Amino acid sequence: MRTHSSSCTGFRSQTEAVLTLHLNGLSCHQIADRTALPTHQVHSLLTQAKTRRKHRKRLEEHAWSDAMGDIAPAAKETLRCQAALRDLTVEDFAALIVETVACAGLIDAVLDDGDRPKVARHTSRKDFA
After folding, report:
1. Is this model's pTM higher than 0.90 or not?
2. What gap in Å lies between CA 94 and CA 102, rounded to an integer?
3. Which domain of life does the protein's organism represent (predicted)?
4. Over the stretch 61-82, which tens digit does the pLDDT of each residue have?
């Protein structure tokens, strides 16, 4: 008879233990045996994690579609093609572009095309002291 005291040492939580073991190919019964959790609890933790992941993915897709709404169709297609060449999702590729441009200090170089008025540079707090 299985005891119901949790043995998930080495993990931050029971959910992390269950998900890790599941991703390693163990069945609910095997996970229950390894963690000393009841099988129904293992199943419940897996179901909750999958639901949260699906919900988070829907929110991310919705946010991305909102952000992409203002981008010209030709630019969207270019992003898709370039992302595919790099084996990245369009979202990850766009984030990589933004991060690279910002970290390299290239925002002005990328956006200053002469057609738009320049925006005042950000001032530091000490300028207002």
Report:
1. no
2. 12
3. Bacteria
4. 666 666 666 778 888 888 889 9
